[in-house]
Specification:
By secondary structure, this protein is mainly α. Helix content is 72%, strand content 0%. It has 15 helices and no strands. The radius of gyration is 22 Å and the shape is globular. About 5% of the residues have low confidence.
């Protein structure tokens, strides 16, 4: 009877893994709490206009804390990486959610298309570029670099989502390969950006300009050629970013076309 009772109460390997991950999340939270700065927390919350709680930890300190915790505790596989991120994200605290994004970025080679719904949910619950952008550029975009074809169709759907943060993430997902001038990445980005050029949401306009600006470093001719027939439709923030690394002649020509569109009262406005 004793042996049976002992067997019934013994912890399985799954139980132990869950406890270890909970302990890792708790250790991250404890270390971040030790770095709390109430004044920084108040100013960050006001600056980001976020409903989340803040404890006032700098981003480099969050990065270092997660790096050290993962090195000490280890994340062995996909399920453990996702479980840790979920545990950290479950609290409505900015720094813990930033830690979840950082943890995923350090385990991105273990993520796949099956994780896109989770990432989209995180994006929806972010409510600020300060969480959306790390998820999009350090997680999604690195996933796209590895297996673009596996994610393209779903990210195309994100570009049509009613949530502008999801639309922004779909654009920024192409940032890293577009920065290298990758032809396929630019084709995917152009297709998503086309119907969003007259978007009224600032954070979508800015994302289009951001990717075009970075792509302009490696593929200025492609960026200029794509913008040329569309400059009159684009917003000011998109254009100002997009032309930064183009040849001076292209920059002047495109901005002149933008000004003509602006004078004509484009729907996209400034």
């Amino acid at each position: 009877m004793a042996d049976t009772a002992e067997a019934d109460t013994a912890l399985t390997s799954t139980d132990l893994t869950r406890i270890a991950l909970t302990n890792t999340a708790s250790e991250i939270a404890k270390r971040l709490e030790a770095l709390a700065d109430p004044a920084r927390a108040e100013s960050s919350k006001a600056y980001l206009k976020s409903d989340l709680d803040f404890i006032g930890v700098r981003v480099p300190d969050i990065t270092r804390t997660v790096k050290d915790a993962l090195k000490a505790g280890g994340v062995r596989d996909h399920d453990e990486a996702v479980a840790l991120a979920r545990e950290l994200w479950s609290q409505p605290v900015f720094e813990l959610r930033a830690a979840a994004a950082e943890a995923l970025s350090r385990c991105v080679d273990q993520l796949g298309s099956e994780d896109l719904p989770l990432l989209q949910n995180f994006v929806r619950e972010s409510g600020t570029w300060a969480l959306v952008d790390p998820l999009a550029t350090a997680v999604l975009s690195r996933m796209v670099e590895r297996h673009a074809g596996a994610h393209a169709a779903e990210l195309d759907r994100w570009a049509e989502d009613e949530d502008f943060w999801v639309r922004r993430a779909s654009l920024l997902a192409e940032l890293r390969p577009a920065r290298r001038g990758d032809k396929n990445a630019l084709d995917r980005f152009f297709a998503r950006a086309e119907p969003l050029l007259e978007e009224r949401e600032f954070f979508v306009r800015k994302a289009i300009g951001w990717v075009l600006r970075e792509a302009g470093k490696a593929a200025p001719e492609r960026v200029a050629a794509w913008l040329a027939p569309r400059a009159a439709r684009a917003s000011g923030v998109t254009m100002r970013e997009a032309v930064k690394y183009l040849a001076e002649s292209d920059r002047e020509r495109l901005l002149a076309a933008y000004r003509v569109g602006s004078a004509g009262g484009r729907r996209g406005g400034r």
